[in-house]
Specification:
By secondary structure, the protein is α/β, with parallel strands linked by helices. The chain has a single domain, classed as Aldolase class I (TIM Barrel), CATH 3.20.20. It contains nine helices and eight strands. It has helices at 15-20, 32-35, 39-44, 67-75, 94-102, 120-132, 148-159, 175-180, 206-217, and strands at 6-10, 27-31, 50-53, 84-88, 106-112, 137-143, 165-170, 189-192. The chain has an eight-stranded parallel beta sheet with strand order 7-6-5-4-3-2-1-8. The longest helix has 13 residues, at 120-132. It is globular and about 40 Å long. The mean pLDDT is 96.
């Protein structure tokens, strides 16, 4: 698709709903921790490229097991054809994990602040660390406590014009940064497949986001 790229976050096994938005999205995020044991069956049915994500609990995820099992489950997505693997910057033994990922897929290294939006300098340092360990795509997600946090999140994208960056602020106050992320140079933005099926606070539906982008396009 042309225009701002939308990544639909899959949080359950509702294949009918997933297929309904397929023509509106560029790629999917398969949330292993949210879907549960049927995630492989879901992944096999996708008609667009997909990101595998098994989010850590302290960064907004719900994986119930230990860290070693979490990474093993995440890396098994390589066998199913995941185009991108999302792994957190805080992951223990990260460099080894990145090496395994990059043999077969692109590596998205992510960082989530569930409480606040750090200073722009602190966020730039996070991106530099992500790049240093081998990120193909850098993702920095914060939590908006005030409107200005939207500006900081979007500014981060512009600070790295040569890199593939996803940066926005979660929560109701971060709505502006979600909408504008791909319009100011962000790699893509995440969206919910249906109302009530958000993968994170403040996520907009695929349908609403695509309508907004069509209006911006004119």
């Amino acid at each position: 698709m042309t225009g701002p790229r939308i990544c639909a976050s899959i949080v359950n096994g509702d294949l009918a709903a997933i297929k309904r938005v397929e023509s509106l999205v560029d790629l999917y995020e398969v949330r292993i921790d949210l879907i549960g044991s049927e995630w492989r069956e879901v992944a096999r049915q996708l008609g667009k490229p997909w990101i595998a994500c098994n989010r850590k609990s302290n960064e907004g995820g719900t994986w119930p097991g230990g860290e070693e099992a979490r990474i093993t489950e995440l890396l098994s997505a390589l066998e199913l054809g995941a185009e991108i693997i999302d792994v957190e910057l805080s992951t223990e033994g990260l460099s080894d994990v990145v090496t395994l990922i990059k043999k077969r897929a692109k590596c998205l290294i992510s960082c989530h602040d569930m409480k606040k939006t750090p200073s722009i300098d602190a966020m730039k340092e996070l991106v530099r660390k992500q790049l240093a360990v081998g990120a193909d795509i850098c993702k920095v997600v914060t939590t908006a406590q005030k409107f200005e946090d939207n500006v900081s999140a979007l500014r981060l994208i512009r600070e790295f014009p040569e890199e593939r960056i996803v940066s926005f602020a979660m929560g109701p106050l971060g709505l502006v940064s979600r909408i504008l992320c791909p319009l100011v140079g962000g790699e893509f933005i995440y969206a919910a497949i249906e109302p009530g099926r958000e993968a994170a606070s403040g996520q907009i539906t695929v349908s609403d986001l695509r309508k907004i982008y069509q209006m911006v396009k004119g």
